Fold these 2 entries.
Entry 1:
Amino acid sequence: MRPPLWHPPIELSDHEALIIKRIKRAKLFTFLRLNRLFIFNDQFQEELATIFKDSTVGNSPVPPAQIALAIILQAYLGISDDEVIEEMLMDKRWQLVLDCLNCETPPFSKPTLIRFRNRLIKKELDRRLIDRTVEIAKQKGGFGSSQLKAALDSSPLWGAGKVEDTYNLLGHALRKAVSAIARAGQGRELAEIAELAGAPILNSSSLKTALDLNWDEPGERQNALLILLNSLFSVEKWMQSQSDCDKFGVAKETLDVARVIESQNVAFDSQGVPSLSKGVAAYRRISIEDPDMRHGRKSRSKKIDGYKRHILKDLESGVVCAVALTRANTPESAATLDLERDLKFQNIYLAELHIDRGYLSSHWVTQRDETLKIFCKATPVRNSGRFDKNSFFLDWDTHLISCPNQVTVPFEPGKIVRFPQSECTICPLRADCTNSKKGRTVSIHPDEALMQELRARQSTASGRLELRRRTTVEHSLAHIGHWQGDRARYLGQRKNLFDLRRVAVVHNLHVIARISKVAPIQPGIELDSLTG
């Protein structure tokens, strides 16, 4: 059954006015109380209500706007679901926003909060929360047109799942599978199932204690892998032999995960003896509990176990228009596909894009049209004391490159140009150009025309000033990191995208209050810019 529209009082009561005057920090509570019906207008409430079935049967659910406000406040304070329920009973600021002052029971329960969040994610309506803040920014003068001048950047988000080595990953999967079998109605404890299934190594406080091997010896490590893989095979065979094996769906899924880990990390010699594979598989799974976590890098020196969060910020208003969450091993450039999809829902198109070099291979850059301006620091040109690439002239009409001595040869983007050895040998500028006996070479970037444009821009004071505009997105990332934290709240990529989206909503509400104060509803109540 769909809920009725939520229409709490607009005017402040004396009690509410007193509470607002006492709020010195965390002024988002004040902002939401004064503007809750402006943010969650009837049209938006009706859209959120589509997560419920349109039926006359069942109890009337809680208004989605009320739960959505609680979800935003949860992100603002970084608290758990249990703490949300507690705050609604104990904190007058929460009661002020949710219209439940002095309540003896919370407006909704923890299961209701969880169900609403899951339905919000399933219907992709968490994206609409960001869209709504962008709509408000447009109405309040934050946007002049649908042509966006945006900056894009990313930061690490460490996963919530436990990162384990190959031995512990296999052992963890085995233990989880046997536990699932025990729960599926066998009427036996895990230890008994482990013995029956041929995996007694699970009956110890830890896997490596059960193995009791000298891990410094390669032969012992091979023996450990053999024991684990034999145990895995034994559990699979035992499970298949059971008459009620259809009940073991969860266990089978977990054992399939163990086989994936085996394929990614274990190699067999001609005798069938296992050992750890050399190198790291491209999409290596690093956690049993979180299937989406990956090893990755933010830079050469900075490793990540988890995800990367990306935000696209409007440089004029400061509003975050779209966010994306990718696995840590995914190149930054891959995030732009998700970001573009979200922008299309808002009918916003890019006019300027300010990025770092990690996004230069994105489709926004490689497939750009002439209307999109790219601002980025160019790839540095190596200079060994001789003529560098900037000393060569590229004619884009004829695709010819000329050296400082006016020798001309054809070039192709993405290829290496080699000047004739005969010309380089007799060249009077050879000493300042190359010492190669085969002649001078020049590497042409796949998007060399853009690189030349970027180098020319950053060689001027105005161009360098323009490049510094991108630093504001780093500040917004820092604010979002402050609210969301450096470690993921949830297991799985999709739920953590939801968390990133609602934190972006918190950011945008602060921006909206700053760039264009929404007119106070209650006379005499002055709304300052949000702090805290």
Entry 2:
Amino acid sequence: MGILLAACAIAWVFQDWQTSLQVFAILVVVYVISFYWRWIWVALRTAKRDFTALFCYIKILLLTRSFTKKNYSMPEIFHDVVTRHPNKACFLYEDETWTFKQIEDYSLRVSAVLKAKGVKRGNTVALMANNYPEMPAIWLGAARLGAVSPLINTNQTGNTLLHSINVAKCDYVIYDSEFDEAFQEIKKEINSSIVLLKFTRRPLNLSPESLKVVDGSDDFTGLLESTSPSPWNPSDSDGFNGKLLYIYTSGTTGLPKAAVISPSRMVFMASGVHYLGGLSPKDIVYCPMPLYHSAGGCISVGQAFIFGCTVALRNKFSASAYFPDCIKFNATAAHYIGEMCRYILATPPKPTDRQHKVHTVYGNGMRPTVWTDFVTRFGIKKVVEFYGATEGNANIVNIDNKTGAIGFISRIIPAVYPIAIIKVDQNTGEPIRNSRGLCQVAKPNEPGVFIGKINPSNPSRAFLGYVDKQASEKKIVKDVFKHGDSAFISGDILVADELGYLYFRDRTGDTFRWRGENVSTTEIEAVISRVADQRDAVVYGVEIPNTEGRAGMCGIVDVDNTLDLEKLVKDMAKDIPKYARPVFLRVMSSLDMTGTFKLKKVDLQKEGYDPTLIKDKIYYLDPKLEKYLSLGPEEYEKIVSGQIRL
């Protein structure tokens, strides 16, 4: 209105509408620059990034729309790839090459065996196996029958393993013979209705005379070798939005939760990295990540199953073998997690450091302090850092090599991809609401929790949650930006800068990340308390200088000095994976609790493991001796300086 009045005044002064319009245009430009210059500056800086991402996002939506119309499940998506190039290498493993046709034939053989075993649509067929080509081929074969496959973490033993089988309501469990001891320990406690099938891995293309005869109905390998592949048919499943996999995640409390992965979710995760990361079907992708996680099992396997890339697998990560493997397999892209990069960088420089063909590495958790040194030493052209919870409905990707960023929020077209950073109480993780009861968007450089708006009608925006519906409800925040809407709340504290680049800060709740795994403090507290004669125990994460994530520390009550540390280590090893065992131990006379008997851990976390600040006895876990050793000022300084490696 003010500009309109000014224009009228100018027209009256000049008595010339042409001149008036020119002056008016100048006033508008001056007004816009005066009041919106910062937005214009941000738009100019980020337009290329945002519109590049928008173009890729449109390709993702078109791909998912195509699969939605056909109602494809993963066996159909994979079959289309097999039809295009049956003899192309799908997986490389050690000295073996598995073509797309061989993987499909193997999966058809799996389908035939499982069908003969009574597997049908709606059944749950769990899989606990290492990183070899048969692993994804097995769950693909189960998916063809309409079964869902929980992918069990190969580190699990004891009660944790038993819980993972029970929480997913498994009907069948296929497990690698390498984990036979773990299953024998819990066999008596497994429901008798659950069918156990043992798989023994054999090298590819064994001669017929070297094949082992079936030695029992539970010998899955023998059954596969004596069964012909079933003819290819479309899967008997719920299609693109049905259940495909369960992938276990610690969440914020309790034992592992089974997160639901649909074909649409897998396509969305894999295509996000593929398109935004600039990958192509010609790429050979190196993956030393465990295939029971969404990163390796969905994103990297998805590059083969959805886009026809060749994926080179390694059973267990090795820092010294990472780039030599890339050279061996002629890899052009490689998967990482941040901790891996630090270990790789710590290996002695070699002439072969730049003799690989890797142009792109993708993953999550690369520290800014490692980033520059890593790409410089190994000559990496592009780092595609991504972020997204397994059970979540939103993934973000760093598409333009911004050091340290895990993705971005567009400042000029924010509504296109409905994610946000909202203000929360960092101790409780609860959203801070305004007078209307709605959430508040965090300002630039203000910490907040990452959320993804839920739209059930859009496969890429739906929230499938966990098998446990109550656990799923805890990950949903309602009345976000208007009354009645909802969003997935990640529990991760992020910060967005003025240009919209996002940076990871921390995790809220009772979970911390160590060695690339999420550790649930509540779960570990329960195990330690049980094996230590029901002593009070509190677990929390503490930082070690120049080390990714947080190391576990346990405060445990020992009033009468009867705590047997050697027995504690042995007992923990039965039920707690190596990565989740407390690195530090603080033996205390009592624990502070709230009025509702909740353990107070914030103060303990702040005090850390510095013996000059703490009167209690402190110990650290020596990984080689597998013993807790006394931690004094001298040991503390060696840990801080890196002389003692944990």
